[in-house]
């Protein structure tokens, strides 16, 4: 099969051996894969425990074409998405030490075929196109955990999604809109803010403009919850927009570690800083169920042909995308 | 009456007019007052909205000697402690904007008499000496909120009380021991650690010794909850000792704001940083009830005569105390 193989500093689309399903496994023919920041970080060598060569990719939509056991035959021919968790463990609230994400060191989805355990298969939501369904798994699950388990976002919650252009952020945005929260966004791009307003955002602020976030917060009574993956020195500005007892939920720190985080504002206002990463298998199932219930359509930035997959990575690196970057495999 | 009056940069024990109880108020003859860091910070000009001259002091134990209305006569002759909250408001989880702490701008407890609203009176726990009861109010309430409402500390919770010599920290320590938590402490003084072990601590670490906290955590499976008021650059070391989903509860930042707080460790381990300050009137009542139930004896550092009250402040400033610093008024 063809696969995009990451070697030291370079990708190569090459022919590798197609894997064979073993006990309790299925072979999936991949139609579409989606990229995550994780993939780009691994490409850049900025990730823990990198093992090369590697086939990256945590997200896929495809068709089951073989299984190891007859009693799993009912999966054959089904369109599926793949749960990207490997060995999350039994605790709903955190991953065990053995936890891995699909793709590096295990074979990922940027290949024509993949073998996964049967219990990683999930029927593709019927209402979605294949390329839309491929966008869901890792980012959707991460957003679900941050938004609902950590943020407890519900109808009428005032929630700010910062940097809404990101892959996880867009799902946090779509899910929050779906459940009837009052959703606000930040972005550095007016076009993204405008698009979010069309999709149901109450308002948006350009975070490159001084006081824009503060003024939006003030006009709306402050936020109950902020969903963030940037951290960095912008944290103090965001924290200042939270209501007393408000929650700053974060699943990344793309802008680095904050200097002089205003701990006094945090304790005086009884604020909560809640870390989150990925989600349990239960979160994955609940996320898919939520999508089915509200017919949530993932925002797709662009679909790249498989032989242009490196350009897809470059687009992720540039950070100008709004929505998921998809690779059409076959 | 005699009162310790703080003027610009100087205390003066002087004769001031004894206040008179108005509607729904009581006049309390103060037997003992206790100091809090807040008082020393106000003395040093390091507090918001300082109004001078001021009579400081948030804690007192005394006797009700007059009330404004006959239907409050049953209070007369009763030994009481005073709830130091003024206008906390209706929300159990945070104070309203009008909230004040007893003592600056209102008259505080470092005076022979004080007038407070009847609903601020609380019968002194019978099992305590007056000087012990005077130690309870502000610090006990603050510890109660941090430990139980924020930290959810229960029987068998692994809880670390950092800087256990402090006024609030000692109550967090005593309350955690009372409810059957597995309690660990840090201090810069071996004598304090030894005393805490006698009082029921599982173990203690000298935070000036490299890796002492880390090793203690490792030997005990990590902490579920840390109760801290230091913050500063030691935070990363403390956070690293938390179990996944562990809580870092803090009610102060005496060591300043942290540089380069390790947000990645926080989100990867689903940690929670929970700010807390003071407590509601309900917390005050629950704290007193807890003390009565478990017959908790506050740790007293030293009792100063009223005419040596400035020396009491100096002791607070030096930071070598273990337990509450008390001033005998009359």
Question: What's the structural blueprint in terms of helices and strands?
Answer:
The structure is a homodimer of 330-residue chains.
Chain A (H helix, E strand, L loop, with lengths): L1 E6 L2 E6 L9 E10 L2 H7 L10 E2 L3 E9 L11 E4 L2 E2 L13 E2 L11 E5 L3 E3 L6 H4 L3 H14 L7 E4 L5 H12 L3 E6 L2 H9 L4 E4 L5 H8 L3 E6 L6 H5 L2 E9 L12 H6 L3 E4 L5 H14 L5 E6 L3 H10 L5 E5 L2
Parallel strand pairs in A: 11-12, 11-14, 12-13, 14-15, 15-16, 17-18
Antiparallel strand pairs in A: 1-2, 1-4, 3-5, 3-9, 3-18, 5-6, 6-10, 7-8
Helix pairs in contact in A: 3-4, 3-9
Account of the protein in words:
- 2 copies of one chain form a homodimer.
- Chain A contains 10 helices and 18 strands.
- The N and C termini of chain A lie close together (11 Å).
- Chain A is of the alpha/beta class and 330 residues long.
- In chain A, the strands form 4 sheets. In chain A, strands 3, 5, 6, 9, 10, 17 and 18 form a 7-stranded mixed sheet that branches. A 6-stranded parallel sheet of chain A has the order 13-12-11-14-15-16, with helices on both faces.
- In chain A, strand 1 (2-7) and strand 2 form a beta hairpin.
- Chain A has 2 domains: 2-136 and 298-328, Medium-chain alcohol dehydrogenases, catalytic domain (Quinone Oxidoreductase, Chain A, domain 1), CATH 3.90.180; 141-275, NAD(P)-binding Rossmann-like Domain (Rossmann fold, 3-Layer(aba) Sandwich), CATH 3.40.50.
- Chain A binds chain B through residues 91, 93-95, 150, 231, 244-245, 250-253, 257-264, 266-277, and chain B through 91, 93-95, 150, 231, 244-245, 250-253, 257-264, 266-277.
- Strand 16 (272-275) of chain A pairs antiparallel with strand 16 of chain B, so a sheet runs across the interface.
